[in-house]
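haha ok so turns out i had the wrong file open the whole time. this is the CORRECT one, sorry everyone. sequence first:
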Amino acid sequence: MPKSSPCVFPWSSLLLASLATLVVQSVLSSSYSSSSSSAYQRPAAAGGKRPGFMERTLVLLDVNTRSPIRVLNDNFLSLQLDPSIIKDGWLDFLSSKRLVTLARGLSPAFLRFGGKRTDFLQFNNQKNLAKFRGPGPDYYLKNYEDDIVRSDIALDKQKGCKLASHPDIMLELQREKAATTQLVLLKEQLSNIYSNITITARSLDKLYNFADCAGLHLILGLNALHRNPDNSWNTSSTLSLLKYSAGKKYNISWELGNEPNAYRSMVGRAVNSTQLAQDYTKLRTLLQSVRYYHRAHLYGPNAGRPRKNAILLLDGAQIVSLTAFSLHSHYSYYMDGRVNKVEDFLKTRLLDTLTEQITKVTKVVNTHTPGKKVWLGGLGPAWAGGISNLSDTYAAGFLWVNTLGMAAMQGIDVVLRHSFFDYGYTHLVDQHFHPLPDYWFSLVFKRLVGPRVLAVRVAGLQRKPQPGRVIRDKLRIYAHCTSYYNHNYVRGSITIYIINLHRSRKKIKLAGTLRNKTVHQYLLQPYGTDGLRAKHVQLNGEKLLMSDNETFPELKPKTLRAGRTIAMPPMTIGFYVIKNINAYVCRR
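then structure:
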């Protein structure tokens, strides 16, 4: 888990940005290295047609193994939990052995606790408050609440990581409660009018226990809408929270507010860039006054999608030297009414939607804070809970894996997935504690993909564009050094991941430095008869399932002999490790 480090600036030098990125692929020119091309050419046959694999192969693929184009954070793929889990009750189940195991599988990572309801959180330094627990009039619900209290008492007796196995009836009652609560939460989200949420000391203990046991570093969002009559930030709740956390020696980083550019539409009160900078100065002063956090990392202001008001906010905040700030948005731009069937996930124009937004954000960052790290926050395949049998299926993985690849190519330092777990259909883990397809994509990514990003060289990927028509690639290829945490591969190995959006099989021939190397294939396909709507994934033909609450399935590769062409089935995602290539860029 990352430790706090001395700050060179008044705030953390890292900076989160909520943006999605453009696919960057280096396409070989017509002079793709004549010396390399000659190695593949065969004598022309009678009639002018040349036999051999050049007729059958879609692309030639090579990778620059001399130097990386980007070096990312080791926690590149990170997680997010929404404060709504306090209200719908799921926070009480974060001690589940299965949930902790699933989160640990994606470590090392950051865990951001934040979202729309960040600015409606109020801290109350009491362990258990009956009025906040709200047992309700129903007899069974009362018994359910009593079970929660008994579970808490049992957890308190444990030392170290506090883990629990909850009875099925308890989980069933919780699912019923969450379904009812979500109707209220969804109404708030659609109306953009939110009620306050109390986070008690007990709630914070459970949240930190989850993060700590799973090997995640907690980033806690603070309420920036708690205002004094003069519109200055009211710090009373925050100071109480800081003192409690310091007393427990919780290693936490901090964030102030969520999308301050949207405050006027939410509460009818705007916070301009000057006020925002003053709020951050006040928060830094608070952190320095609490000895345990005087060097803690600080993030924000987590502005929304880079439209005019967000850009103006960031510009102004930069002018007054606000150096630790972030941008935020779901990649719900994929599903803002334009995606209502699985086939829509295959449309490359949707995958490439945010090119303009990237340009706007990077211009602001490079103008005011060149060299600062940029984060991509609040990523999820849909807004307002998602769509059943759509945003929780294999098809949504095309967006997720493509976003990881695009973000890495653009140098995004960290990507935060919203949300790891909760009620709804946009998460990595569902409310039955079953991993959804995006979880398995994330797990394979974590196991195989390292932080060093490599330039990909391809030939034959693009066809000649027609006048006025933009050609977007349906075969998307990214390359990294293989993760150093994976001890099955020696340093110097390379991982390539490929997304085939075509409705037909495509072939890729490894060329140049990759030629005649042994390859380990990790081909992820939908399992069952539901096709792209499948909620289960198979790896090289084997269904991926948890063996029990604490055991992952073995991720067995399929070995492709040296020189063999990679055949990508239609509408699939594959990871390929080039073994023993001893790439210079990946040995360091």
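The longest strand covers residues 475-482.
again sry for the mixup
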